[in-house]
Specification:
With 130 residues, this protein is an alpha/beta fold. The chain has a single domain, classed as 3-Layer(aba) Sandwich (Oxidized Rhodanese, domain 1), CATH 3.40.250. The chain is 28% helix and 20% strand. It has four helices and nine strands. β7, α4 and β8 form a beta-alpha-beta unit.
Length: 130
């Protein structure tokens, strides 16, 4: 089963469980220029410009997280790509998968802007830019 947790609960889990790992599944450009949570490991689920699924995603994660029972937290822009990535890991036998609800930038507001109503950055959690 894939859990959906709000960013604050994910941050608490990362602080309390040393085996927990956060994977940022966004593109290299998003990870570098939009910013990313401190300590997040970047393994893209899809990459621009073709937006093809990264066929090496599961293998890349397994090199970082060999214990399939360890908590794996997945982050994207708004929580959709990370859910797809979590489903792929679930099919590969991972049992503690957490989709970070609202992702890094959160949902669109009434002006079609992200970052104003939710997400990791909006919650004031630790992050950095390249």
């Amino acid at each position: 089963m894939i859990e959906n947790l709000v960013p604050q609960d994910c941050w608490e889990l990362l602080q309390q469980d040393a085996s927990a790992v956060m994977i940022d599944v966004r593109t290299q450009m998003e990870h570098s220029y939009v910013g990313h949570p401190i300590g997040a490991i970047h393994i893209p689920w899809k990459e621009a410009p073709g937006w093809e699924v990264n066929v090496n995603f599961v293998n890349s994660v397994s090199r970082i997280v060999s214990d399939k029972s360890a908590p794996v937290l997945l982050l994207c822009r708004s929580g959709q790509r990370s859910l797809s990535a979590a489903q792929a890991l679930e099919s590969a036998g991972y049992t503690r998968l957490i989709n970070i609800a609202d992702g890094f930038e959160g949902p669109l507001d009434n002006n079609k802007h992200r970052g104003n109503t939710g997400g990791w950055r909006f919650c004031g959690l630790p992050w950095e830019q390249s």
